[in-house]
Amino acid sequence: MKKGDTASAGWRGSRDGWLEAGYRALIDGGVDAVKIMPLARQLNLSRTSFYWFFDDREALLAALIDGWEARTTEPLIAATQQYAETQAEAMLNVIGCFLSTSTFDARLEFAVRSWALQDAGVAARVAAADAARLEALRGLLARWGHGPVEADVRARTVYLVQIGYISMQSNEDVATRLARVPTYVSIYTGSHPEPREIARFNARFDGAA
Question: How many Å apart are CA 125 and CA 120, to the nearest integer?
């Protein structure tokens, strides 16, 4: 059996299990909480079993950063490219991505941004992600007819508001946030969403409101 085989179990646990434990430690306690021995105790595994899947702690941290991009940047960029019949619907796709924990992991985003304050390498990854996300938003707005400067400013307005929610750890309830969505769409795009578009959008979050 090769090192890193995700099918491995028993006394070694699994790569996914170690990753999940590392993820939980990161979002609950920050990067300093991601340490091999505490994770081993949490998983009821030996410290040596960790090395079946990762060369060292740095390898686990690198995998967590890759996971962050998969849980945040990739879904957001996909949302900007999702089919929409109107500009308002296109922006609702983006807002919906930010609102859903299944498409944008806000807790992980906060943890990684906090980590970036003490790690230049992570800060560079965050800066690259910010640039890619903004470029995707600019591209969406450009496709709907906004010129370069206007698309850039509107994209920054969208992005900085959403990241502000995360950085400030806003506890605004879902119902309140949904009530503000039509106005956000108008500000972000200059076009008003139709009632049917808002109804479809709100239906996605009925269980969370």
Answer: 9
- Give residue for tokens 């009925």: 206
Task: Tell whether 108 and 17 lie within a shared domain.
Answer: no
Taking phi over 0 as left and psi of -120 to 50 as alpha, with beta for the rest, 196 belongs to alpha
**Whole-angstrom distance, CA of residue 32 vs CA of residue 45:** 20
Over residues 109-125, the pLDDT tens digits come to: 999 999 999 999 999 99
Same domain, 91 and 138: yes
Length of the chain in residues, anyone? Answer: 209
Q: Which amino acid is at 80?
A: T
Put simply, whether the predicted model's pTM sits higher than 0.70 gets the answer: yes
Residue 194: domain span = 72-203
Identify the domain boundary among 46, 67, 88.
67
**Statement to judge: residues 90 and 129 lie in one domain:** yes
> 9 and 17 in contact (C-beta within 8 Å)?
no
Which residues make Cβ contacts (< 8 Å) with residue 77, sequence separation at least 6? 132, 133, 136
- Three-state DSSP class for residue 167: helix
Q: What is the pLDDT of residues 181-205, one digit of tens each?
A: 999 999 999 999 999 999 999 998 8
SS3 of residue 171 by DSSP = coil
